[in-house]
Design goal:
The protein is an alpha+beta fold. It has two domains: 172 residues, Phosphoribosyl-aminoimidazole Synthetase, Chain A, domain 2 (Alpha-Beta Complex), CATH 3.90.650.10; 114 residues, 60s Ribosomal Protein L30, Chain: A. A hairpin with a 2-residue loop joins strand 12 and strand 13. It starts with 6 loop residues before the first helix and ends in a 10-residue tail after the last strand.
Length: 363
């Protein structure tokens, strides 16, 4: 029996099917961005060395320098690299991610939660490719005077989460660092041959969907989130997902990554369809310099939810199946991919440019 959709989802689908999200683009300015500080700092020392360059500008300069070989199926530019190592029926996924004290966690954060976050970030990237994790190696950098009990707590949290997903932790490195502590996880995974879901497959007219809730992750979600591995594996196994990404730098920024990777397409998102986390709404009610709830959902980041694109004809079937399979995890249709460029937000005042948003380490 089909699952009844709530009003916002039903309206989203009607607008997607009927072209209700218009293509006319007013010339007035978009929403101003005032981002909540999700991280305690933004790498000031590194910015001082590199000058005004932004993170993605630097990446664009470095990627052409990277050598490739015949094992590479998909290299830099996606949530994971895809490698063909000759295993029948499978391809390998390879990912590295880091958490840095003062940026991704504060000094008094519980070390078990720091360890969980360190590996869960990489697990979320494997999920976005439609794969499952296999093994990890860990590099831990400690400042002088850091107690061994802190490092043990980090590893307890990391290993608990690894064991939950049957990930073997097979080694790593421990180094000293004169500044803050940091932790880097390199993760191997695997995906059925030819079934990796890339960012680059979105098509004009696709329905855009997002799992869970967005915004306000600084209230605790960023240290406690669960990677959407089961949900992503189910999507890849049962549906034709054209493109997918994990929402780590904010929906506004990560949506643009998909659009750019898919050949410069555009998107229109319904503000009323965005699943705003209660913590973001609560912070918005504080007034003053608090970030408005919709803006928080678009730009706060560290949500680690799935953003994906499917054919509009498949949208209802995907949502019905998802809600039956994962009743505790919300799923929303938030808009559609368009032929014309740019990311646009439709709200009660009409259609306007979506905030640039998205966290950049060197910005």
């Amino acid at each position: 029996m089909p699952i009844r959709h709530d009003g916002v989802l039903a309206r989203s689908l009607r607008q997607l099917a009927g072209g209700g999200i218009g293509r006319s683009r007013p010339a007035h300015a978009g929403i101003g961005v005032r981002r909540a500080p999700l991280r305690a700092g933004k790498g000031g020392a590194l910015r001082a060395m590199l000058g005004p360059m932004r993170e993605f500008d630097l990446v664009a300069r470095l990627v052409p320098m990277l050598p490739r070989n015949d094992f590479v199926v998909a290299g830099a530019g996606d949530d994971c690299a895809v490698l063909d190592l000759g295993e029948p029926g499978w391809q390998a996924l390879f990912k590295t991610d880091a958490v840095v004290e003062g940026i991704h966690f504060v000094a008094d954060a519980p070390p078990e939660k720091v360890g969980h976050k360190a590996i869960a970030r990489a697990l979320s990237d494997v999920a976005a490719m439609g794969g499952m994790p296999v093994a990890a190696v860990v590099t831990l950098a400690l400042p002088p005077g850091r107690e061994a009990a802190w490092a043990e707590g980090v590893y307890r949290g990391l290993c608990r989460t690894a064991a939950q997903w049957q990930v073997a932790v097979v080694g790593g490195e421990t180094v000293s660092n004169p500044g803050h502590a940091w932790l880097s996880v390199a993760l191997m995974g695997r995906v059925r041959r030819g079934k990796a879901v890339l960012r680059s497959g979105a098509r004009a007219g696709d329905a855009l969907m997002v799992s869970g809730e967005l915004g306000g992750s600084i209230a605790g979600h960023h240290l406690e989130f669960e990677p959407r591995l089961r949900e992503a594996a189910w999507l890849a196994a049962h549906h034709d997902v054209h493109a997918m990404i994990d929402v780590s730098d904010g929906l506004a920024g990560d949506l643009r990554h998909v659009l750019e990777a898919s050949g410069g397409l555009g998107a229109e998102v319904l503000a009323s369809a965005l699943p705003v986390r209660a913590a973001a709404r609560a912070r918005a009610r504080e007034g003053g310099r608090a970030t408005p709830a919709i803006l928080a959902a678009l730009t706060d980041g560290e949500d680690f939810e799935l953003l994906f694109a499917v054919a509009p004809a498949d949208a209802v079937r995907v949502m019905d199946g998802w809600r039956a399979e994962f009743p505790g995890t919300p799923i929303r249709c938030i808009g559609k991919v368009t032929e014309g460029p740019g990311a646009w937000l439709r709200d009660a005042r009409g259609l306007r440019p979506m905030p640039r948003g998205g966290y950049e380490h060197l910005g």
